[in-house]
């Protein structure tokens, strides 16, 4: 298969979800097999590199997608976007409150309140792509907006509550680097022929391609952000939000679109599967004990119940007390199915779990086991609900032959 076709295949959301599931399954089986020593020797040492390095690239894509939505997507229209935005915020707050209530008074465990707030955008959209044939396109838009805002909330939570003590010199350096990155997006180093002045002779020169400067600058911003004590994934989001979505003279596509086209297959094929492989290797011998811990119960209740209550309830209350309306192609059972799907925490939840319990291996293992179980249950419930909804929508759709 030509490499171009492979890249096109890797851009499919269903393929990304499948690779995530396979990587997590391999990690889980390997960590509980007779060869578990190999997992601990060869895979676990890669985890800090994957979490602090590779995952930044994924969050860059998230930030870039957020920028596109703010400029030309659903988030550009406040009235149209208000329903999934409020639903997403409620879907983050309610699980956190449920977790806090269950772990109240439990020393150490309460620090993980941010774990059930997250929705794995790649996994959730992939499941919808697999089971969503016949569902209205507006439902995918609702999920995308919901998941993007959810990611933004999770990013803010990580930056404010799960970062180490600040080192101001690297932080100011990172801010300066971000300002320079944003300025360069305006095109002062745009590719293309330079105009030759009347006194100049010889062939025209070409401006330096932006990527030769922007890529090293992005790496420098990542390093400085990491050294500042703020989790390095924030650098990825900030860089993504600074990407230019418009075109300049001589350009056929914007830097934002070019970056999306170039990087998305690599996040699908390598970055997220590697993170899942290095994160999901939870030892499940004695899993019953792991899942009876208050932190695990809080994660399970937050992701499975809290997401449904928060998203469905938040959306309903918004339509009840504001001018926001549910899209005419959608019904409340559709939103209920999406709320179930949002219970897939996985990548971001695993990341926040590691930030919550860096010095307590037992708590971390318990939290990881709960995230994996809750994500699996949420995916299963959502698959059943959305498959039934898709069948109903197909029956109600007009017959094109009629």
Any descriptors?
402 residues; Na/H_antiporter_dom_sf; Na+/H+ antiporter like fold; cell membrane
Please describe what this structure looks like.
Keywords: Antiport, Cell membrane, Ion transport, Membrane, Sodium, Sodium transport, Transmembrane, Transmembrane helix, Transport. The chain crosses the membrane at residues 41-62, 82-104, 110-131, 143-162, 168-187, 208-224, 230-248, 269-288, 294-317, 338-357, 369-388. Belongs to the NhaA Na(+)/H(+) (TC 2.A.33) antiporter family. GO terms for molecular function: sodium:proton antiporter activity. Residues 191-195 and 202-206 have low confidence and may be disordered. The radius of gyration is 22 Å and the shape is globular. The chain has helices at residues 3-10, 13-31, 36-43, 47-72, 78-102, 121-131, 137-161, 168-184, 210-228, 233-241, 255-279, 287-290, 294-321, 332-341, 346-356, 361-396. It has 16 helices and no strands. By secondary structure, the protein is mainly alpha-helical. The relative contact order is 0.18.
